[in-house]
Amino acid sequence: MNSSNYQTIRVQRDALGPHIACVSLNRPEVRNAFNEVVIAELTAAFAELGQDPTLRAIVLAAEGKAFCAGADLNWMKAMAHFSWEQNHADAALLAEMLWTIYSCPVPVIARVQGDAYAGGVGLVSVCDVVVAVESAGFCLSEAKLGLLPATIGPYVVRALGEQASRRYFLTAERFSAAEAHRLGLVHELATAESLDEKVVAIASAIATNGPQAVRACKRLVQDIADKHITPALRDDTARRIADIRASAEGREGVQSFLNKSRPAWLA
Question: Which residues are known catalytic residues?
Answer without folding.
Answer: 142
